[in-house]
Amino acid sequence: MAAALLRVVVPMEFSFSGFLDATGEASGRDMNLQTACWVQKRKKNRWPLYSLFADTKYAICGQELVKDSNTPIYPNLVASPAREIAISSEQRVYEVVLKQAALVEKQFKKKSTLQVKPDLSFPRTSFLLREAYDRCGEICAEYAKTFYLGTLLMTPERRRAIWAIYVWCRRTDELVDGPNAPHITPSALDRWETRLDDVFAGRPYDILDAALSDTILNFPIDIQPFKDMIEGMRLDLKKSRYKNFDELYLYCYYVAGTVGLMSVPVMGISPESRATTETVYSSALALGIANQLTNILRDVGEDARRGRVYLPQEELTIAGLSDEDIFNGKVTDRWRNFMKNQIKRARLFFQEAEKGATELSQASRWPVWASLLLYRQILDEIEANDYNNFSKRAYVSKVKKLMSLPMAYERSLRRPSSKKLEFVKP
Ligand SMILES: CC(C)=CCC/C(C)=C/CC/C(C)=C/CC/C(C)=C/[C@@H]1[C@@H](COP(=O)(O)OP(=O)(O)O)[C@]1(C)CC/C=C(\C)CC/C=C(\C)CCC=C(C)C
After folding, report:
1. Rounded to the nearest whole angstrom, what is the distance from the C-alpha of residue 210 to the centroid of ligand 1?
2. What is the value of pTM for the model shown?
3. Residues 254-281: pLDDT tens digits?
4. Which CATH code of 3.90.1150.10, 1.10.600.10, 3.20.20.30, 1.25.40.80 fits the domain covering 32-45+55-116+239-426?
5. How far is the CA of 288 from the centre of ligand 1 (A)?
6. What's the average model confidence in pLDDT over 201-212?
């Protein structure tokens, strides 16, 4: 498997270029009906002007996570002496969210009259394409068993598409996190990006890419979040410190928020939902950010041993801490207080993600709830370890994981809110 993943940056002798056309199935396939059903007519929000100023609701000032219930929440904005910043990462990312939501709406308008039966089209697809998706499913089952089981509840077409996206993300992550990571250069990532362009143009290099090329034909998926994930990997190659939460937020968007944006067009929004498309995308983004923040908080010690500190430097300073304290790995009261605020902020992102999870199409909700509940418990485990994330890895036991699954199922049965949904930026 590792060999297959590594092959991705090596120029291929044999290319699957034109593979999809050769199947005679993938190109020109109609958009599926589910796509058309997800979207209701939705109005776009303008980015609120007050977000450009630094009096934020959840900025971490001093030892406390400042929380004022009258103002909106912008965790990534840390007060600057001038009380304003130019363009926050949050605003930049929100523009991507709007673009993704607009794309889905455009497709809906174009295709709403089509009567395509999505799952009937699959038996006609070629053996090779079926093989491609099966392989993606196997990789998914190998790397993320619980998540794989969750996808089995989705419709076959959606499940295959999510596997294809998962495999592309996993391969991308493996470039900088896998066994060959020390040999990965920016030009290897450039090659990976060229290859992505080819996948989106229907010219996959290998069988796993072919599954993604097919997925892109079936769902209104934009290339931007994929490109942004590669950008996150570029950041990982050149950056090992994050000045403030604004910088960290952008990194979290690149490596994890993008996953949310890639997944929603496949998972679909419930026809019962009254939430705006961009609200659901914002929640998906929030889940990615929450997961990545949790990942960072869990792995503080492990990252430090690789010379990396993802925690915002300015917030460490405000808390009276430095890189030195992290490398020393001693749990002090200062560290505990600092961690309490970091955990609180991650939980706010989970809270926002919860709202959108309920708005997804019924069959897609369970794996999302399972992922949310399981990952959020890592935060509880960090607390249970008395904030020692230097030498203890917070870990959710098998029993707790199993216990969460029925709870995730129960949550997935909750119907979308009948009220118009408001997304509050954490
Ligand atoms: C249903 C569901 C969860 C779908 C997502 C499927 C998918 C395409 C996953 C790809 C995950 C992946 C391989 C990402 C590469 C970058 C990366 C490694 C990110 C980190 C994940 C955990 O990594 P890892 O497996 O190494 O973790 P462990 O060390 O083993 O703990 C991340 C922390 C982030 C992953 C981000 C998500 C799963 C975002 C999920 C958001 C949605 C599916 C949107 C849901 C929609 C709403 C409206 C809430």
Report:
1. 21
2. 0.81
3. 999 999 999 999 999 999 999 999 999 9
4. 1.10.600.10
5. 6
6. 96
